[in-house]
Amino acid sequence: MDAIKDKPERTLRLVFLLADTPIPEVVERYGDYGKLFSRLLQKAIESGPNKNLTLKIQSFEVQKMEFPDRNELLETDGIIISGSSASAYDDIPWINRLTDFTKFLIENHPNVKIIGVCFGHQIIAKAMGGKVIKNPIGWEVAVTEILLNEDGRKFFNTDKKFLDHVCLVPPDFTNLGSTEISSIQGMVKGNHVFTIQGHPEFVGGVVKELVKHRQKKGIFDPEFSQMCLKAADQDDDSLLIGQKFIEFLLVNIGFFESKCVS
Question: Which of 8, 87, 152, 200 gives 148 a disulfide partner, CB atoms 3.0 to 4.6 angstroms apart?
Answer without folding.
Answer: 152
